[in-house]
Known about the structure:
By secondary structure, the protein is mainly alpha-helical. It has helices at residues 2-8, 19-32, 37-47, 56-112, 116-119, 148-156, 160-190. The longest helix is centred in the middle third of the chain and has 57 residues, at 56-112. The two termini are 65 Å apart.
Amino acid sequence: TSSLYAIFSQTGVSEYESVIRALFSVFNMLLFNVYDFNDFVVENKKANNNGENNDSEVIIAKVIFSVSMILVSIVLLNLLIALMSDSYERIQDQSALEIQKLRAKILLEIEMFMTEEELNNQENFPLYLHVLTEKGSDRSENKSQWLGVLGAIKAHAPSKNEIKIQVNEIKKELEELKQKMNTILEILQGQ
């Protein structure tokens, strides 16, 4: 916007007489595809008092506009990709909880249609539930599954207890440094 304003503010192009009109013109050009470079040529020829054909401003305007269109498209696509990946990671983070919630809803619906006799049947509802898992496996840790950026950060981040220990160590070191600084200050003031 500022570059197009700088080029055309003195040439008599009506869309770039003020900064606000230039902003509005660039907004229309970028979002609504409302532009015509022939207006620049006609206005430029009218503004030229010598009658010479000076098309350098028009060429520069075309280059600036083309570059800005490409850059705006790339930035908006990157923004869209970032938003989609962030949404995907949040969904992946909550997927295990959502699966358990859906299973509980299904079981609740099934139990709603059961009779009192079926609900009290020990074969359908035993007192103990035995779960078979593979030997040596822990179902809570599936490290082969992609966890996303947040999962990778959580995996490498220290725990709260580790952070508290580190903070306490830093506080102790600061206290020792304060004591050393005070003794040095006392020595310097005594001299």
